[in-house]
Amino acid sequence: MFVCMCHAVTEEQVKREIDGGAVTPRQIAKGCKAGTDCGSCVRRIQALLGEHGARPCPTARLAAKLGLAEPVEAQAA
């Protein structure tokens, strides 16, 4: 199934990026260009990151701790 129609990136390609160490949508984009055009796939990329055990980046944890964002645990749900 395609995740990013703009660059024809499949779910499997995104999962490979995650398996390769990507933990943020930006790192996914750097590896396969998903999310770099219209951006409509970014939420699906975030969901895949959560589903496949990618840890939230330190910035997200800090923002949650400071009350600037919802808790990291809630973001993954």
Automatic annotation (TrEMBL):
Record carries keyword Metal-binding: yes
Pfam hit, one: Fer2_BFD
InterPro entries cross-referenced by the UniProt entry: BFD-associated_ferredoxin (IPR052371), BFD-like_2Fe2S-bd_dom (IPR007419), BFD-like_2Fe2S-bd_dom_sf (IPR041854)
Keywords on record: 2Fe-2S, Electron transport, Iron, Iron-sulfur, Metal-binding, Transport
Keyword Transferase assigned: no
Domain BFD-like [2Fe-2S]-binding: 3-50
PANTHER family named in the record: BACTERIOFERRITIN-ASSOCIATED FERREDOXIN (PTHR37424:SF1)
Similarity remark: Belongs to the Bfd family.
Protein name (record): Bacterioferritin-associated ferredoxin
Protein species of origin: Kitasatospora terrestris
